[in-house]
Write a structure and sequence with these properties.
Elements lengths: L8 E4 L13 H16 L4 E6 L5 E13 L5 H6 L7 E12 L8 H17 L6 E5 L3 H9 L3 E3 L2 E8 H7 L4 H5 L2
Parallel strand pairs: 4-5
Antiparallel strand pairs: 1-2, 2-3, 3-4, 5-7, 6-7
The chain binds coenzyme A (COA).
The site of coenzyme A has 22 residues, from strand 4, helix 3 and helix 4.
């Protein structure tokens, strides 16, 4: 797991060299190279990059605000979270997450996921969000999120959800996060 001493750092996408990034899923590579900057400028997504000590991009993820249709949520979750029956409810979209093939198996995927969840949780203290949504690109990606206890939507198993209450519990002792968005 990277820490300050390992030389990895997470930064908002700027003028980083993205040309060499390759995660084995072409649309995710193309997104980082061709679309991420535009999405950032248009306030559609905030891309964060994981930069290695030698300046290579080891991974990235994006976060956006989104709206969930109340009817799409698993009914037992609506009950458990005691959600109001509004037509739409607020959530945070983890739009994309990928680790470069050369950096796999070093727990960087986990590190990026936890970083994204913590960002989402901090944001939710000022702009409410019920939880984090992902649309898994394929079965392998879906298995990755299930490994971290995301829940499947009944009508759309590729869409997964982690309640903000669960995310908050992960960072319960993180008082710094409360004060410093
Ligand atoms: C999925 C991905 C982000 C994982 O990154 P990684 O750095 O190789 O994974 P990590 O080393 O952090 O793995 C942490 C844990 O997740 C597990 N894991 C990793 N990929 C997994 C997968 N596809 N399915 C199930 N579990 C997976 C690991 O076995 C490890 O498990 P452990 O806690 O039991 O030891 C990476 O393989 C990737 O970028 N894939 C292509 C793009 C993609 O599918 N993105 C996700 C959806 S858009």
């Amino acid at each position: 797991m990277p820490d300050a001493s390992s030389g990895f750092r997470v930064e908002v996408l700027g003028d980083h060299d993205r040309s060499a990034f390759s995660c084995g899923v072409e649309p995710l590579d193309r997104y980082l190279k061709q679309q991420a900057g535009q999405d950032a400028r248009r306030n559609v997504a905030v891309p964060f990059v994981l930069v290695a000590a030698d300046q290579r991009i080891a991974g990235y993820y994006t976060l956006s605000a989104t709206a969930l249709k109340g009817d799409d949520l698993p009914p037992e979750l609506v009950k458990k979270l005691r959600l109001p029956r509004y037509p739409e409810l607020p959530a945070t979209m983890l739009g994309r997450l990928a680790v470069d093939s050369g950096f796999r198996g070093q727990r960087l995927g986990e590190f990026l996921l936890l970083h994204a969840l913590r960002r989402a949780w901090i944001g939710s203290q000022q702009v409410a969000s019920l939880g984090v949504i992902v649309d898994a690109k394929d079965e392998s990606a879906r298995q990755f999120y299930l490994h971290y206890h995301f829940l499947s939507f009944p009508e759309n198993p590729r869409r997964l959800f982690l309640p903000m209450k669960t995310v908050a519990a992960l960072f319960a002792s993180d008082t710094e996060g409360l004060a410093k968005p």
